[in-house]
Amino acid sequence: MLDLIIPSMMTMMTAATPLIFAATGELVCEKSGVLNLGVEGMMLVGAVFGFIGATVTGDAYVGFLIGGFSGIMASLIFAVLTLLLVSNQVATGLALTIFGTGLSALVGADYVGETIDRIRPLYVPNAADGPNVIQLFLGHDPVVYLGVLVLLACAGFLSRSRWGMILRAVGDSDVSAHAIGYPVIRIRFAAVAFGGLMAGLGGAYLSLAYTPLWAENMSAGRGWIALALVVFASWRPIRVLFGAVLFGGITIVQLNAQAIGLGIPGAVMSMLPYLATIVVLVLISSNATRIRLNAPACLAQPFRPER
What we know:
By secondary structure, this protein is mainly alpha-helical. The protein contains 14 helices and no strands.
C-alpha cells in the first residue's frame, strides 16, 4: 500500500508547488487592490527564461533565480501601464498573458527538446528499500519546501506585520491610505513585483523540476487555476495551501486514471482540474456576501493621487 500512497502524495505536492508560488504572489497583489490576470503569461516567461538560464549556466538553481527575475520584469510592464498610466487592469492583465505566451514561444523555439539536470530531491531511498515514510517528508526538492515557507511567511506578514497591515489598508481604501500619507502607488508597485516574482518562480519550477524541459504553453492553464485559488481561499494565505494541494491531487488523479486504463478518453480526464476549478468557483460565487466581506474593497479600481 505504501508503494502506491507515498509516490502519489509526493507527486501531489510537486504538482501543487507551481500553484503555491503563483497563487501566493497573486494573493499579495490582490490584497494591495491590484488585479493582475497576467499570471499565466508571467509563468511562461519565468519557465522559458529559467530553462534558458539553466541551459546556459549549467546550474538549475541559477535558472530558477533567472525565472523569478523574468517574472518581475514582466510584472513591471503591467505595473507601469495600470498604476502610472491608469489603464484597465483586466484588459492589461489579459494582454500580458497573450504577450507572455507569444514571447515564450518565440524565445524558446530553439530550446524545444533540450534537456537539463533537474533540481534534485533532498533524499532518495535505495531502490531495494522502495518508498518509505522518510521520503514523504524529506524526499522533495528544496523548492517545494521554499514554496510552503514563502506562503507561511506571507501569512505572517499580512496578519502580524505593520507593513502587511498597511498593504491591506491600501487594498481596502486607497484614498484613506493616501490621505494619511502612505505611498499607495509605490506599495502597489512592490506588491505587483512580488506577484511577478512568485509567478516567475512557479513557471521556472515547471521547466526545471516538474518536467525538466521546455515546451510551448507548458503551464497548461496553471496561471488561471492560481487566480481561481485566490478566490477559493477567500484571500487567506493558509487556505491557498489547502487549495493548491487539492488541485494538485486532482491533477494526479487524472494522470493515474489514464495510467491504469479506465477506458475514459484521455481528453476528458485532462479536463478534470479545470472542471474542478469551474465547479469550485460556482459554489463560492453562490455566497456573494462572503466574497464581499473577504475581497479587498478597492480590487481592480484605478487610483489617482489627486482624488
